[in-house]
Write a structure and sequence with these properties.
Length: 301
């Protein structure tokens, strides 16, 4: 994510990050087919720790648009949902080829009018602690509830297929918490999906910035996700918030990283997911997270 847009040559992209001291890379949704092909010789010697679906980017989509979900595993359009499953399987096949253990999934969203801007405006105006803010959060989540069942059922159908593929391929698919209230899964849906697919290769992928953003906007307390779903947790995305703006290097924003690392199991994958910025800030973020990861490890009993 950090350098996929600014460095179009896959080999140079790999070398740039390797020189910053990283042990492994995550393949992001921003990589083009050419970049992936250029990366393959290097990744066969240095397998990625994880890969974000869809990778490489979908045909007809620019790298700048890659973070937007153009086809959804939650779609009520049967053809679109099947295409999303097919493209996900292609990402899973790439993971098998490169010996990547985890494919991180975005499950989609509920097709409802997005009221996030109202909560953002009230937050920015300093109204976070007032009744009007809580009222807007309640209105938004109630509107979601009116339409969520059909989309959740579509996700269940998609996950049923993908879990079968994951079992045959011997890899994990990990469902990720998302930043917006209308996206899937919300906090309760994570538990529902694990209950439905108990014993499957499905795991939970926790994005610290997304959880913190949901807390700032009054949707869900950030610490509940890891606390509740720790037994399923396989990896985390690490990025900081500056106000409501995400993907900043850890240590450059509002979050308390010593507390956050104290909540994380020591053996989960930890991936820096950072927007383009100066290389020095990336190195400082890596060193901070390595230090906190070491200090938060529990002594052997």
């Amino acid at each position: 994510m950090w350098n996929a847009l600014k460095q179009q040559d896959g080999a140079a992209l790999f070398d740039e990050l390797k020189n910053l001291g990283f042990e492994a890379l995550e393949l992001s949704r921003h990589l083009t087919p050419d970049q992936v092909e250029q990366l393959k010789p290097y990744l066969r010697e240095n397998p990625p720790c994880s890969i974000h679906n869809f990778c490489p980017i979908l045909p007809g989509i620019s790298q700048a648009e890659a973070e937007q979900d153009k086809i959804l595993l939650s779609s009520l359009n049967a053809d679109e949902r099947r295409e999303a499953v097919r493209r996900t399987v292609q990402t899973m096949e790439l993971a098998v080829e490169l010996q990547v253990p985890v494919v991180v999934l975005h499950l989609g969203e509920v097709d409802t009018y997005d009221r996030s801007y109202l909560m953002r405006d009230l937050y920015n105006y300093g109204e976070r602690e007032f009744e009007a803010f809580d009222r807007k959060v309640t209105e938004a989540t109630e509107w979601r509830k009116r339409k969520e069942t059909k989309h959740r059922d579509a996700v269940l159908r998609s996950l049923d297929e993908l879990n079968e593929y994951a079992l045959k391929m011997e890899l994990c698919i990990a469902i990720e918490n998302r930043p917006h209230y209308y996206q899937i899964p919300n906090f309760d849906e994570v538990g529902l999906f694990f209950e439905e697919f108990y014993g499957s290769p499905m795991r939970y992928w926790h994005d610290i910035g997304h959880a913190a953003l949901q807390e700032k906007l009054g949707v869900c307390w950030a610490d509940r996700w890891v606390e509740q779903y720790a037994e399923h947790l396989v990896g985390v995305n690490l990025h900081d918030l500056q106000g409501l703006k995400a993907y900043h290097p850890p240590g450059t924003g509002d979050l308390e990283w010593d507390e956050l690392f104290g909540q994380l199991p020591s053996d989960v994958l930890k991936v820096l997911e950072i927007r383009p910025c100066e290389a020095e800030l990336v190195v400082e973020a890596r060193e901070l997270c390595e230090s906190l990861s070491q200090s938060s490890k529990q002594p052997d009993v």
